[in-house]
Amino acid sequence: VMADWGKCLDFGVSIARQARTVVLDAFEAQKVVSLKTSPADLVTETDQGVENLLISAIKEKYPTHKFIGEESVAAGASPVLTDSPTWIIDPIDGTTNFVHRFPFVAISIAFAVNKQTEFGIVYSCMEDKLYRAQRGKGAFCNDIPLRTSGLEDITKALVVTEIGTERDDLSLSTLTSNIYRLLKIPIHGIRAVGTAAVDMCLVASAGADAYYHVGMHCWDIAASALIVSEAGGVVHDISGGKFDLMSRRVIAASSRTVARGIAQVVEAFPCERDDGLPDLLPLDPKVIGLNLTSRCSTLVQGTYPKLLW
Ligand SMILES: O=P(O)(O)O[C@H]1[C@H](O)[C@@H](O)[C@@H](O)[C@@H](O)[C@@H]1O
Ligand SMILES: [Mg+2]
Ligand SMILES: [Mg+2]
């Protein structure tokens, strides 16, 4: 029988609401900003404070549960997802927005058991929009049910993506040529809100038709990936194959057709997986009929082969 994690979800919502008050209080205040992996990868004391608040509240109620938190990982914790009940937390998604007071900042909390996401919560703090989904039970924004647009025709798509924090030539040339090739399809337009979690919730709420990105982390999208699929959307790897939460690549879309259309024109640049495993080519045996057993031990330099089906 499927365990009902509903009470755990309710607890997650209650601590997300508490954390939001901390974010709102800090939003206007002076901030101490530090750098992480690049001059564009920022972190503040509020990121760390909110993560500590969430993790200590959860530990008190569920002492055996495990955590993958963005700022704990930045401080050296290992982001390996086991079968144990695990909370995957991004305390502030959109830290650059937070620092600049660009009013799109989200708290993202996902909960996985046996490596399967059981619920996801994304609180878009300035908008006061609390998105949530429990596996098999639908997706909601402030308790209103969510459905994606269901769009099939990519030439009518509004697509969200992110610029990310990479500033090296390969990442930036791949990223900008992806935008160029998408616009040439043509599509209606491209937007970047500055938080992957909110981008994906826009797909779930039909405000956009697809989101794609290479370089974000599991904590950015673990919650919103479930919210998109519970809203009737699809979530795939950037190649069009099977989504892998730890791969740092994703397409979330209104339909498989739109996802396929994006997979055909966008390319991935190599980036280290969140779990540190050797990078797997995004080969989905079902999709290409291959019987793959061995992992690919080295990154395919440059871009991944096109996996079209
Ligand atoms: O604000 P973060 O939690 O660091 O997440 C950001 C990420 O740093 C950036 O690279 C982009 O991918 C954004 O979409 C993320 O939300
Ligand atoms: Mg983030
Ligand atoms: Mg963050």
UniProtKB/TrEMBL annotation:
As one GO molecular function, the record gives:
metal ion binding
UniProt keyword Hydrolase, yes or no: yes
**Entry's EC annotation:** 3.1.3.25
- Name the pathway: Polyol metabolism; myo-inositol biosynthesis; myo-inositol from D-glucose 6-phosphate: step 2/2
Q: Reaction catalysed?
A: a myo-inositol phosphate + H2O = myo-inositol + phosphate
Q: Print the keywords alphabetically.
A: Hydrolase, Magnesium, Metal-binding
Write down the superkingdom of origin: Eukaryota
Q: Which annotated residues bind Mg(2+) 2?
A: 90, 93, 220
Looking up Gene3D superfamilies in the UniProt record yields: 3.40.190.80, Fructose-1,6-Bisphosphatase, subunit A, domain 1
Belongs to which family?
A: Belongs to the inositol monophosphatase superfamily.
* Name of the protein this chain belongs to: Inositol-1-monophosphatase
Q: Which organism is this protein's natural source?
A: Scleropages formosus (Asian bonytongue)
